[in-house]
Amino acid sequence: MIPKVKRPQQRRMLALEVRDNVRISPSFARITLGGPALDGFEHTGRDQAGRLFFPREGQRELRLPTLQNDGWIAELLIMARSRRPWVRTYTIRDYRAGVQEVDIEFALHGDAGPASAWASRAKPGDPAGFFDEGYTYLPPEPGGRQVLVGDESALPAILSILEGAPESLEAEVFLEVPESGDIREVECAPGVHLHWFARNGAATVPGELALDGVRKAELPQGAFYTWAAGEAKLATGVRRHLVADRGVPRSDIAFMGYWRHGRSSPG
């Protein structure tokens, strides 16, 4: 059975600030966070993610929980809403220990959600917090045969996985993005095949194109590890298809629903 998540032994709240905000494609921004709290940060790569804390509109300061490990949750819930920050989960795209910085990439969709709205306006000096939650990409071996699937919310995680993968990786990778301009040039192992799908304004639920691509694809013969994430129906749809139609053991599939179309996250 594949473990669901690998967490650091000790997790602590990191008080950081925005150092840069760069629009890297029509639908994505890269925000650099930094500060002394990152000294000694345990960067594992893969799909390492954590809770990002940022102010609600109108809040003059960012109040962060202070308890380590999972104690922060109860501390956050007893805060008055007027003082409670927004909390969302994001992947670490890069870490530079020498300058105490991390990069986080945001899929932007206007002001439809608090994280997108914040990322669109964040400027150097703005406060933020980060709490490491570990990673879920846990293949039985670093290389070997794999299938990776994600929409724009999972793109940073999959790119991080590919950049850290060994040359022996053989993978079919299915990536869905809002626009053709969001398609990236990716350096990866020679045995990796990228399949990009751009909605380009089509009235489809995010994830449908990638899921359809998986259904129609010629996937590796024999055993392979699958990691699928993004909109909930994409993640569960990939798992259901592989198990029911391809006979893949459930234990060989890691799947995460990052969000649900038409529903906002609580907070």
Automatic annotation (TrEMBL):
Gene Ontology molecular function: oxidoreductase activity
Name this polypeptide is given: Siderophore-interacting protein
UniProt-listed PANTHER family: FERRIC REDUCTASE, NADPH-DEPENDENT, NADPH-DEPENDENT FERRIC-CHELATE REDUCTASE
Short name of any one Pfam family annotated for the protein: SIP
InterPro entries: FAD-bd_FR_type, FNR_nucleotide-bd, Riboflavin_synthase-like_b-brl, SIP_FAD-bd, SIP_fam, SIP_rossman_dom
Record-annotated FAD-binding FR-type domain positions: 11-149
Matches recorded under CDD domains: siderophore_interacting (cd06193)
